[in-house]
Amino acid sequence: LQALTVPETATYFFTNSAGIETLGADSIDEVCMQRILFEYQLAQEDAFLQWAGLQSSRPALLVLDRRALDSRVFLRDEQWLRMLSLPEKRKFSECDLLRRYDVLIHMHSCAGHAEYASGMDSNNPARHHSEDEAKALDQRTSWVIQGHPWIREVPYMARLEAKMDAVYGFVHEALQELRDLKVGAMECSGCDAEEMESEDCIG
């Protein structure tokens, strides 16, 4: 098995630029900014899948820090629909986006549970949300991904090691289920399971 990790997008832009001023809630620039991050996320995912395909004899596991759907977390519903259908841009449906991922794991933040920091005082200087905003984003993320058939939520845990153990357990469980499903499908079609090639995406 080859494992590939796809990094988070927004921090890359914020830390490699002068940043941007706070955009108004109704600003078209806010929608356009999220479309840039959305397209970059999709391009990264597709590029990593192609990279994995260079070793086609080895099944691939893509572990994504973020998902294309996460742009919806930071937009109001009407803005999200607008972003998906901007003129002269490729159109997407939410179902199309959900189908890109085999498994969705939501790791809840420490907001509301332990000391929370943002900006230069945090381990991620690009983080600019207040604690209340972070709590609201946690809740909205759970709502945004609820249409996916395989979701696991990891609550806040004081020890990072315990949180990661929970994630590893979910990934192992997911890989086993996905393998069982694919082997079963191939046996039904008369294929040898050893011929199976897979690219599983966990976001």
Relevant terms:
203 residues, two-stranded parallel sheet, 5 strands, globular, 11% strand, three-stranded parallel beta sheet, mainly alpha
Task: Give an overview in words.
The chain has 203 residues and is mainly alpha-helical. Helices cover 46% and strands 11% of the residues. The strands form two sheets. It has a three-stranded parallel β-sheet with strand order 1-2-5, with helices on both faces. A two-stranded parallel ribbon has the order 3-4. Strand 3, helix 6 and strand 4 form a beta-alpha-beta unit. Helix 2 crosses helix 4. The longest helix has 30 residues. The protein is globular. 18% of the residues are buried. About 7% of the residues have low confidence.
Question: How is the topology of this model organized?
Answer:
Blueprint: E1 2-6, H1 10-15, H2 28-53, E2 60-64, H3 70-73, H4 77-84, H5 94-98, E3 104-107, H6 131-144, E4 151-154, H7 160-189, E5 199-202
Parallel strand pairs: 1-2, 2-5, 3-4
Number of DSSP-assigned strands: 5
Rg on CA atoms, Å: 18 Å
Q: Helical segment tally?
A: 7
Biggest sheet character: 3 strands, parallel
Q: What value does the average pLDDT take?
A: 84
Distance between the termini: 17 Å
Portion of residues in helices?
Answer: 40-55%
Strand order of the largest sheet: 1-2-5
Give the SSE order as H and E letters: EHHEHHHEHEHE
Low-confidence stretches: 185-198
Structural class: mainly alpha
Give the DSSP E fraction (strand runs of 2 or more residues).
5-15%
| Overall spatial form | globular
